[in-house]
Write a structure and sequence with these properties.
The structure holds two protein chains of two kinds. By secondary structure, chain A is mainly α. Helices cover about 70% and strands about 10% of the residues of chain A. In chain A, the strands form three sheets. A two-stranded antiparallel ribbon of chain A has the order 1-6. In chain A, strand 2 and strand 3 form a beta hairpin. The longest helix of chain A is centred in the middle third of the chain and has 45 residues. By secondary structure, chain B is of the alpha+beta class. In chain B, the strands form two sheets. A two-stranded antiparallel sheet of chain B has the order 1-2. In chain B, helix 1 runs antiparallel to helix 2. Classes of the chains: A mainly alpha, B alpha+beta. Chains A and B meet through helix 2, strand 2, strand 3, strand 4 and helix 3 of A and helix 1, strand 1, strand 2 and strand 3 of B. Strand 3 of chain A pairs antiparallel with strand 2 of chain B, so a sheet runs across the interface.
Chain lengths: ~375, ~150
Amino acid sequence: MEAPIKGTVTSLSSLFPVEEAQKASKRVEESITERQKQLDQLREFAADNNTLINLVQRLPDQLHHEIMVPFGKAAFFPGHLVHTNEFLVLLGEGHYAERTAKQTVEILNRRGKALEVQVEAVKALMQDLKAEASFFDATASEAADGLVEIREDYVEETSTKEASMKGTVKPELTISSEAENVPSVKDEEYDRILSRLAELEKEEEEAENANQEELGEAGSDISLDDVILEEEMKSSELKERGESRFQSTEKFPDNWHVQGSKSTSKDCIVPENCLPENLAYGKFNLTESAPREPQAKEDAPREPQAKEDVKAPVIAEAKADALPTKPGFDSSKAFTGSIIEHTSDVNSREQSVSHSSKPVSRFKMQRK
Amino acid sequence: MDTIKQEKVRRFEEFVDRRLKPDLVHAIAQRDKVFEQKKIFSDLRINIENLEKNSVTNLKTLVNLGSEVYMQANVPDATHIFVDVGLGFHVEFTWSEALNYISAREEKIARQIEEYTRLIASIKAQIKMVCEGIRELLQLPAEPAY
């Protein structure tokens, strides 16, 4: 039941080429120097502001101040500063305000605070950039050293069915986390589904036994679609039939890997059951096709028969079963569309879904 | 033979990019500074001429204390001006003396500008020559001389 733990070994240098990491770190350093310049400029402004505040506070001490009044950039006039308590402050955009020394000091204080806020912002930016730069440096050195990153699938060991289901259903790392969450949530639904499946299986078995040879290989793909649809409904029937077959198809469920569409809660819990449904509805992005092929073929013979036989009863059954047994179960609804399809119809529709009834069998196996 | 050519072309290009172009940029920057000086002095001259024309002696001005904070200042006697003659010295002039000085100064500045212009022109000529050499090596069609 346990899927083989797959692992991938990727060299860090392939993920983060050394040269690129170095280039990135250089870029970040450049931006750091830019920010540093900005910071210096802001600090200068702050210093000037403080000097001015001191000056403004000292000027009113005298009535007149002897000064050299500049005349353009290259000439001076000797003169006096008069009205030493009156300051003309530029507020921006050509607007000036005439203020006393104290009021001017207040204005300058407010300006100083704004400058400080800017300084803090630039400092924070620089910190981030520095962190980035250090990360790049570390990565570059690691990649140069030949560090490798090893990823392994996570196989969660949960209790009974869930565990078994998960084991088969989660070959891939990406999905494992998703699958974990879902099964835990769907235990109840799982039980409901199982019971429903059991009933369906019985019905299907009867039909399958009669038509096992009919489909053959030709419609393997197509039949798969049908199979999948049917499987949902008759998971129980299929299980019984394909149990032996399914057992060999451990890999099938592995490949199945429910990707993404954990949209329905039930998907995870009953991957096999739900998958066909989901496929029909495009809920799942089943990745594998190759592994499914052989299984599809196996299922194909079962499928056509099962479908035909089961379609009508399945629909009724599935719905009937589903509704009373699992009122909240979505799979019954999922059945609705797929069940009705007959082999020919299903073939055209369910091309994408090449899942065979394997999941069902697995399901059944797990149950048992 | 080709590789030698390529090598030469590459070296020429490098020379242009690394020596000549920065030199050109530098010379242009210095010439611009001298232009600024010229403008300052011509403005000063115009102002002094204005003062003289209107026979102004008192002046009320607004002095920039820094960060665009102004304070009123009085100049009781505007007949004596202190002009910056370089090296941190300011000389006290009367209006006419100041005007004389400013004219002499402006001449000197004009000569400096002339020199810089010549330097810039020679650098440009060198760049052009190297480019022509590269073109010959690559046997590209020569640019029209007109």
